[in-house]
């Protein structure tokens, strides 16, 4: 089964590359350029312009929607409304500012290469089998990340590398997970799970990683950058959780139900699913289940907690599936469950084309249930073997 999957993954990667190359040849320009030679407003455009503003000593100004919109429009040489804003904490600007010293196209290339390498390392650590990286890069959420120049590879990379180190080096692994506070909504569940599971070393590492990067960004970019970010949080929440056009692109429980006309049910069900995800993940971490079950449970819980997540954010579920595949290859899961693991990262990709659906959270729930079920089955087998040994 594995050789066939590996071959299929490489075929899909080649298909993606061929499609992009064919479109480039047919249009006479790459996807990030318009027919007139100006830059297309990708998500990476916002990252690049934020880096430019940080270089100019205007990190705090980047959080003002009118100022950022004006700077972005000037860079893109357009009078049209772009609709992109700078939302991330100043932590990410520590990376974007040096990258913005490069021209736009080299910066985009370096960004995709460096973050893609992080993702590849995470996949290799999560599932040390040849072809695992091909499977990861063939998943729809990772392709969305490339085409938009987004930060999904960063999130997936930090999750994968941090969790791979968490057993041997809990402080270091926790510190790497602490860097995920560059997207606070995506990392909010991590310290909660560590507290409930009694993982003090990992929690301390997470706290140190988050605090150190926050302090460093404040020292370099100015404390006013953090003040501006905090003031912008309310506007960001209103934009993503209140505006229907933004919710239409999200893949969460809240987005799917609220856009369907059930706002009260959306909030209640989202909170219930998030709480269940946190408790299930904490249970696996508290009983010291194998990492192949703990890691996907924590990643899935993080995805379920955030009320707004987009297609590129689902790249973390690809790493979760890789960790769980390790358990499958060890014989702890059956063939039908292996099929579900492979299908899970594909579901959010379908959601990218049909709008706000429950496919994203369903994929996370599926991985969480498979991890929990596999861990409990293994635990029962261990107890049964211990009982026979005593007898």
TrEMBL record:
It is found in: Cell membrane. Residues 1-22 form the signal peptide. Keywords: Cell membrane, Membrane, Signal, Transferase, Transmembrane, Transmembrane helix. The chain crosses the membrane at residues 84-102, 172-196, 203-223, 265-285, 297-324, 339-372. The keyword Glycoprotein does not apply. It is a multi-pass membrane protein. It comes from the Bacteria. Belongs to the glycosyltransferase 87 family. This is DUF2029 domain-containing protein. It comes from Roseomonas nitratireducens.
């Amino acid at each position: 089964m594995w050789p066939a999957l590996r071959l299929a993954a490489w075929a899909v990667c080649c298909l993606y590359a061929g499609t992009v190359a064919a479109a480039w040849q047919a249009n006479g320009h790459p996807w990030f350029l318009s027919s007139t030679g100006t830059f297309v407003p990708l998500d990476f455009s916002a990252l690049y312009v934020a880096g430019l503003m940080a270089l100019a000593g205007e990190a705090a100004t980047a959080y003002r929607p009118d100022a950022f919109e004006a700077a972005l429009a000037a860079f893109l040489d357009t009078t049209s409304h772009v609709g992109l804003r700078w939302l991330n904490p100043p932590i990410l600007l520590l990376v974007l500012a040096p990258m913005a010293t490069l021209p736009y196209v080299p910066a985009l290339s370096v960004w995709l290469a460096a973050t893609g390498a992080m993702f590849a390392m995470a996949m290799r650590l999560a599932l040390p089998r040849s072809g695992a990286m091909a499977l990861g890069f063939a998943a729809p959420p990772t392709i969305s990340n490339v085409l938009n120049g987004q930060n999904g590879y960063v999130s997936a990379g930090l999750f994968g590398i941090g969790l791979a180190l968490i057993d041997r080096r809990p402080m270091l692994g926790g510190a790497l997970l602490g860097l995920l506070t560059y997207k606070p909504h995506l990392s909010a569940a991590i310290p909660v799970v560590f507290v409930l599971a009694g993982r003090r070393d990992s929690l301390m590492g997470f706290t140190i990683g988050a605090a150190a990067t926050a302090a460093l960004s404040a020292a370099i970019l100015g404390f006013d950058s953090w003040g501006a970010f905090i003031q912008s949080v309310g506007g960001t929440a209103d934009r993503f959780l209140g505006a229907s056009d933004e919710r239409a692109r999200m893949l969460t429980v809240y987005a799917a139900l609220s856009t369907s006309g059930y706002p009260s049910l959306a909030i209640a069900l989202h909170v219930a699913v998030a709480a269940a995800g946190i408790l299930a993940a904490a249970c696996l971490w508290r009983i010291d289940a194998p990492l192949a079950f703990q890691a996907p449970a924590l990643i899935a819980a993080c995805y379920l907690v955030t009320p707004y997540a987009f297609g590129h954010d689902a790249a973390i579920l690809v790493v979760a599936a890789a960790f769980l595949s390790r358990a499958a290859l060890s014989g702890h899961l059956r063939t039908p469950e292996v099929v579900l693991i492979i299908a899970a990262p594909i579901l959010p990709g379908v959601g990218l084309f049909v709008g706000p659906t429950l496919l994203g959270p369903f994929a996370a729930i599926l991985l969480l249930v498979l991890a929990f079920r596999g861990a409990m089955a293994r635990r029962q087998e261990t107890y049964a073997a211990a009982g026979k040994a005593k007898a």
